[in-house]
Design goal:
The chain is mainly alpha-helical. It is built from eleven helices and ten strands. Helix 2 (about 120-130) crosses helix 4 and helix 8 packs antiparallel against helix 9. About 30% of the residues are buried. InterPro entries: SET_dom, SET_dom_sf, SET_domain_protein, TPR-like_helical_dom_sf.
C-alpha cells in the first residue's frame, strides 16, 4: 500500500471588537501591537532553543554510537579481514586462530523495521536511510543484492536498490516489541558467506537488551580459514538446499558439504533428514504422544547423528528442551545434568554472558523452580550419556 501523507496548514483566526470609546479602542490597538510581537518573539526563541538542545543531544548520541562502532570495527581487524574470494565476491577470513565460543562480531543495526508494515517499503527504507551518517549510508549501499529488476538502473533507482539490498541482507531481530517480528541490517555481519550443515563455523544471535547482534565461533577456526554462517535450516538434502538458496539468494552452493562426492553426499543427506524427522518426533512429547523416557532417547539419537555429520548447531536449545522434559517429570538429578550440558553449549552459541546461560545455571541450583516442574507424571528420566557430556 502506498504511504498516505497528510498535509496540515495553520489557520489564523482574527476577531475584531467595536468599542464606542475611541480612546479605549486606540489603547487596545497599541497594547495588541506591543504584546503580540513580544509573545511571538518569545515563542520563536523557545523553539530555537529546543531545536538547538535536541540537535546537540542527537549529535551526542550519534557520536557516542559512532565511537562504540569504531571500537567494534577496530576489534574486528584483530580477528578477521574482509577479502575478495573467487566465485563468491567478498568474504570474511580469520587473521588468527579463533577458539570455539569466542565472540567474532558485535554489531548494532544500521536500522530496524517491523517485518509487517502497512506503508510503502521503499518509502520506509528511504526514511531510515535519510537518518544515517554518510559512512553508514555508504556501508548500506556497498552491500550485495539479488533480485533487482533488470529494467531498472541501480545508479538511478536508489529506492528500489535499497529494497533489494534490504531483502538480501536483513536479519531477524524481534527488536520492535514483544511478539512482533522485525529485521535489521548489519553491514559487517552481512559479509559472512553461507555454509551448509558441518560447513558453517559461526552462528549469530540477537540480544534485545543490548540492541546488538553477536556472532560466536561454533567451532575452532584456523588462521586463513573462511568464516561461514548459515542462511537457512540446512537439515535438508543437497538438492533441496541448493534449490532454496538459488531461489532466495541467487547462488549455487559449493560449500564443503554440497561439494561432497555423490555417495558421501547421500549419506550426509540421510543423516540430516533423519535429524529433521527426529526433531519432529521430539516435539510430539508436548502433545503426550511419547513419554519422557522416549523423548530423551530421541534427543540422544539427534545428538549422535549430529556428531557423525559434524552438525553442532542448536545443541544448547536441544539440551535445554531436554531439561524441560525431565523437569516436567520431576527428575532432579537429570534436570541438573541436562541444564549443565545446555549451559556449556549455549556458552558456545550465544555466549557465556547470555541470558540462556544464566537460566541454565539457575536451573542447576534450583531445578524445582523450572516452570514445567511436576507438570507431568513423575518418572525417572535418563541423564545425558557419556557421549554427550564428554
Amino acid at each position: 500500500m502506498a504511504l498516505k501523507q497528510r498535509k496540515s496548514r495553520l489557520n489564523h483566526n482574527q476577531s475584531t471588537s467595536e468599542l464606542s470609546d475611541s480612546d479605549t479602542s486606540e489603547k487596545l490597538r497599541v497594547s495588541s501591537t506591543t504584546k503580540v510581537p513580544a509573545l511571538l518573539g518569545f515563542m520563536v526563541a523557545l523553539l530555537v532553543a529546543c531545536y538547538i538542545l535536541l540537535t546537540r543531544r542527537y549529535e551526542h548520541v550519534q557520536n557516542r554510537i559512532v565511537v562504540l562502532d569504531d571500537d567494534f570495527e577496530a576489534r574486528d581487524a584483530s580477528i578477521f579481514s574482509v577479502q575478495e574470494i573467487p566465485g563468491k565476491g567478498k568474504g570474511v577470513i580469520a587473521v588468527r586462530d579463533i577458539k570455539r565460543g569466542e565472540v567474532v562480531i558485535r554489531e548494532r543495526p544500521l536500522f530496524v523495521v517491523p517485518s509487517e508494515i502497512n506503508t510503502s517499503p521503499t518509502a520506509l527504507l528511504t526514511h531510515h536511510l535519510s537518518l544515517l551518517t554518510p559512512y553508514q549510508y555508504a556501508q548500506f549501499y556497498n552491500l550485495s543484492y539479488v533480485n533487482f529488476p533488470a529494467i531498472l538502473d541501480p545508479e538511478i533507482d536508489l529506492a528500489e536498490l535499497a529494497l533489494a539490498i534490504f531483502q538480501t541482507n536483513a536479519v531477524q531481530t524481534n527488536a520492535v516489541s514483544a511478539g512482533v517480528d522485525s529485521a535489521g541490517v548489519f553491514p559487517r555481519m552481512a559479509r559472512l558467506n553461507h555454509g551448509c550443515s558441518s560447513a558453517f563455523n559461526v552462528v549469530y544471535s540477537w540480544r534485545e537488551k543490548e540492541g546488538l547482534l553477536v556472532v560466536h565461533a561454533l567451532k575452532d577456526v584456523r588462521k586463513g580459514q573462511e568464516l561461514l554462517t548459515t542462511y537457512t535450516d540446512t537439515k535438508r538434502t543437497r538438492d533441496q538446499r541448493r534449490a532454496h538458496l538459488r531461489h532466495q539468494y541467487s547462488f549455487h552452493c559449493t560449500c564443503d558439504v554440497c561439494s561432497l562426492p555423490d555417495r558421501k553426499s547421500k549419506e550426509s543427506d540421510h543423516r540430516l533428514m533423519s535429524m529433521s524427522e527426529l526433531y519432529a518426533q521430539f516435539a510430539t512429547w508436548g502433545a503426550g504422544v511419547i513419554d519422557g523416557v522416549q523423548a530423551i532417547e530421541v534427543v540422544e539419537r539427534i545428538w549422535e547423528l549430529g556428531s557423525q555429520e559434524g552438525y553442532l548447531s542448536e545443541r544448547g536449545r536441544l539440551a535445554a528442551d531436554a531439561a524441560w522434559v525431565v523437569a516436567a517429570h520431576s527428575d532432579v538429578a537429570s534436570t541438573k545434568a541436562w541444564a549443565k550440558v545446555a549451559e556449556e553449549w549455549f556458552g558456545y552459541e550465544v555466549g557465556v554472558d547470555s541470558e540462556q546461560v544464566l537460566e541454565m545455571q539457575m536451573l542447576q541450583t534450583q531445578p524445582e523452580g523450572h516452570p514445567a516442574w511436576a507438570s507431568r507424571k513423575a518418572m525417572r528420566v535418563p541423564a545425558p550419556t557419556l557421549s554427550i557430556t564428554a
